[in-house]
Amino acid sequence: MSGTSAELLQRARAGDREAFTALVQPHRGELQVHCYRMLGSVQDAEDAVQDTLLSAWVGLSGFEGRSSIRTWLYRIATNQCLSALRSSARRPPTVAAERPGEVLWLQPYPDLMLDDLPDHVPGPDARYESREAVSLAFVTAVQLLPPNQRAVLLLRDVLGYRAAETADLLGLSEDAVTSALRRARATIDASRTRDLPPPAGGPQERELVDRFVAAFTAPDVDALITLMTDDVWLRMPPQPFEYHGTDAVRRFLTTIDAHRRSIARMVPTRANHQPGWGEYVHDPVTGSLHLTGILVAGLAGDRISALTHFETTLAPHFALPRTLRPSERGDPRPAVGTAVGDRDRYGR
């Protein structure tokens, strides 16, 4: 522990809340991402981090310094998440999964909340790069794991803690950790996409995204399907609807053709290091544009491998306004300062 951290710890133990905040604040963002991976919900992750910091403040006298403050906070946060996962009251019945393999409550994680994460180098046993470890596909697969397997996989393969460290953090034996990790890896590996996405924000991604937006707001469904992988997934959490493969997705997109044509503006955003958009439709009564959903695309190579449509609950986290004024329809940038892609931009 550095001299500054040791001084802050001493002051915090003496009851100095400002010193405690300075001690834990550098770790807050990464703890929230960890809790998001565990719980699949931005809001639940925020609650878990609040509970973690409260528990750390109350239990600060019990911190013996055998590990770093960061590792100690990860211990508390992981166990907070495990308690939440095991609580029967965590999810209302209307949001519970009805079929094996469904993850109905998953929420997107705004890139705005990923920008300021500290650049910690994962431990020697990490298997996932940070971008893949926050992708919707990865987080979705993690939600299918039992709680202990979930925690073991994230601590070992994402954060890079060794088996002995993970066992200590979770209060398990090393054999139990090894067994849980083996089963968790089998589940995750079966769901991994082999084709890597193009570099985020690079020319290949921008070209694919521009082609997708043009096709998505056009009447030609086939043009949209040609941009997708054969095993593309389309999901709409928390609704129990999902479509797998281009034939199923084509039928669905044809069914909602009228809705797609009603989209007047797609405001770019990013979630889970993936491109996304706020979808706005025109209200003929007020003349304003109303946000109807947040669409996030998963990319694999030069194709779309997944489309996930989310409800508008998290719009404030993405700096997406609920409505755009009529005067903003011709403005290249809305009031929140997010770049806009709309039909005019694509020549329609």
Walk me through this protein's architecture:
It is a single chain. By secondary structure, the protein is of the alpha+beta class. Among the domains are: about 1-85, Orthogonal Bundle (Rna Polymerase Sigma Factor, Chain: A), CATH 1.10.1740; about 205-345, Nuclear Transport Factor 2, Chain: A (Roll). It has twelve helices and eight strands. The protein has helices at about 5-15, 15-40, 40-60, 70-85, 135-145, 145-160, 165-170, 175-190, 205-215, 220-225, 245-255, 255-260; strands at about 230-235, 240-245, 265-270, 275-280, 290-300, 305-310, 325, 340. Strands 1, 2, 3, 4, 5, 6, 7 and 8 form an eight-stranded mixed beta sheet that branches.
By CATH, the topology of the domain at 203-346 is Nuclear Transport Factor 2, Chain: A
By secondary-structure content and strand pairing, the structural class works out as alpha+beta
Radius of gyration: 22 Å
- N to C succession of SSEs: HHHHHHHHHHEEHHEEEEEE
Tell me which CATH architecture of the domain at 203-346 applies here: Roll
- Give the N-to-C terminal Cα separation: 60 Å
Number of helices: 12
Number of strands: 8
Please state roughly what percent of the residues sit in beta strands, choosing from under 5%, 5-15%, 15-25%, 25-35%, 35-45% or over 45%: 15-25%
* Shape call: globular
Overall pLDDT: 86
CATH class of the domain at 203-346: Alpha Beta
Q: Low-confidence parts, pLDDT < 50 over ≥5 residues? A: 92-101, 329-348
**How many strands, what sense, and barrel or not for the largest sheet?**
8 strands, mixed
Helix percentage range: 40-55%
Protein name: RNA polymerase subunit sigma-70
Organism: Luedemannella flava
Region (Disordered): 321-348
Keywords: Sigma factor, Transcription, Transcription regulation
